[in-house]
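Quarterly update from the structural biology core.
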Amino acid sequence: MLSRLQDFLSRHRRKFIVTGVLVGGTIYAARYAQRRLVEFQEKQAREFFERTRRMHHFESTEKTCNQVILGMGEEMCQAVLRECSTDELLEQLRQNPKNKLELWEDMKIVSFTRLATFVYASSMLVIALRVQLNLLGGYIYRDIMSEQKQITDELKQQYLSLIRHFITEAGIRDLARYIRTQVIAVVKAMPLSQQLSLNDMEQLFWSLQLAINADTRRDPNSRMSKYLLPSQNNSHSPLLQQMYNETLDLLESEDAIGVCSHNVSRGFVLACDAIAESMGQTLQHLPPAEVQQENQQPLKFNQASGTSTPNATSSPLAENNNLVNINTVLMALAKLIPIISGITSRGYDSSSRPHNLPTQLITFYVVAEKTKTLGANVYETFSSA
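Predicted structure, tokenized:
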């Protein structure tokens, strides 16, 4: 019996070896695959928790960023109002002086300067704070993950205080004075009696925007860091100097320049909307005959066959005296100046209804998708570096 078993094993030895190798290999492969699967699942779980943690930290950073923007937006608006004040001119005009025409010319320059300064300064402040706070948030997240403490409270304060240069030092002043020189070049030659439509205002703002952006040394879009940040300080710590340089590079990047240019264009559109709304309110208080006279001029410009006349029944007011197509209305520049000055006469005020132009600008820039995307890209870069 034993010899038969030995013979059987001897004859089938290779089969047993092959079977053993296959069974053992299968068991080993199964255990290896199981171990790799567990490692993969653990890695996926770690990455998921890290993404969730990063997302929560980013959302917290965004909330903080919005609060800081709105808080500093109030200060920025007050700085613009101080730099482009019309109080003294208004007080002199109330006294009906002999140089009234000259004062109205000054009002024209200051009103357009203040509006354009609000448009540019609001966009620049929002972009700068988005970049700063998301860059800082990325550094803080790396500290959390590496359990280090590179970013101290003192460093945070020093870094965020860089933007104070724009509001409390020379930033707003230099920006407003540069914009004033371009406003004078574009607007000064326009007589106060010139009749303007909303389309004319849009063209005027477009010309002003082109003039402001034309100077490559002082363009607030491509050279916004010139106004936003102070010059380099040798007393900065190495890490603060590194963060300063990184912020400078980000503000001068094509992405930031593109976002600022887009915001400014949208800001002037908001300004035209605010002017249109104020024009509508003004027209409601004018006698119908006076409003009709202001609507006659577009008919003269648009006559194709010579059959239309100023008294034709096809005029907007002849059809319905209660409805006026605001796009066809002409208004003298002298009447538009108080409107332009009025929509920028107060600073940021979230409780006012309807919102004034500075409030609309800051609110719009805060929620603008391009601005938020810029901040998210900055956070993603510096939180995973």
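The chain has a mean pLDDT of 83.
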